[in-house]
Amino acid sequence: DAKTTQPNSMESNEEEPVHLPCNHSTISGTDYIHWYRQLPSQGPEYVIHGLTSNVNNRMASLAIAEDRKSSTLILHRATLRDAAVYYCILKRQGGSEKLVFGKGTKLTVNP
Amino acid sequence: ETGVTQTPRHLVMGMTNKKSLKCEQHLGHNAMYWYKQSAKKPLELMFVYNFKEQTENNSVPSRFSPECPNSSHLFLHLHTLQPEDSALYLCASSQVNSVTGELFFGEGSRLTVL
User: Fold this and answer.
1) Mean pLDDT over residues B64-85, rounded?
2) What residues contact residue B17 under an 8 Å CB cut-off, 6+ apart?
3) Is residue B60 within 8 angstroms of chain A, CB to CB?
4) Cβ separation of A44 and B103 shorter than 8 Å?
5) Exposed, middle or buried: residue B106 (CB in 10 Å: 0-12, 13-18, 19+)?
6) Are A62 and A35 spatial neighbours (Cβ–Cβ below 8 Å)?
7) Chain B neighbors of A49, CB-CB under 8 A
């Protein structure tokens, strides 16, 4: 499985945008970029995924670099409930359904 | 009941005990997973079941024995565990070949081995 690199931790202030980076320089053409987050004392939950184009949903936006070697998860207005560990994961199209998690980025949101 | 339900939420057991963790999904999915999350370590995939058949065993010790009687239920039978097996055990389900490939996780079973 191709590897992703994320900062260990980031801080943000409430109501401000948050940009969570992820590097995946060995990504292959059929790898989708998935983001999950894990709130305290809960299992991970799906946030968003994309292949080449930027994606938006009700939770977040995903900006994918043109060469696909990096991506950024954007929370437009952070709330205290967004404090979580955010995982960037590559998942091969047509491959195993499993997800391989790294250490993720622990996001702290300050009031 | 909706989503993925795990029971018990907390379990304390001695090294000689036998216990089981249960997972049930109400999403109509056909793949189920066990993950282990130890303190300060990434989630580790343990087992994968597709259509009730085990398709992956990630070098898990035999003291952990999974069982998938049908596509909605997944068990993890525990026997003669070690204190280092204390962790949060997470169950997940997904629909094979779905558009998003999204995994849905339960809230986990926190296991303490004394």
Assistant:
1) 95
2) B78, B81
3) no
4) yes
5) buried
6) yes
7) 100-102
Phi/psi of residue A106, each to 5°? Answer: -85, 115
Q: Taking a C-beta distance cutoff of 8 angstroms, is the pair B32, B46 a contact?
A: no
Residues 6+ apart with CB under 8 A from B31: A97, B48, B49, B50, B51, B93, B94, B95, B96
Distance CA A26, CA A106 (A): 23
Maximum Cα–Cα distance across chain B:
44
Q: Let me know: does A3 contact A69? Beta carbons within 8 Å.
A: no
**What is the residue-averaged pLDDT of chain A?**
93
CA distance A58 to A78: 13
Residue A68 reports pLDDT greater than 80: yes
Residue B61, preceding peptide bond in cis (omega within 30° of 0) = no
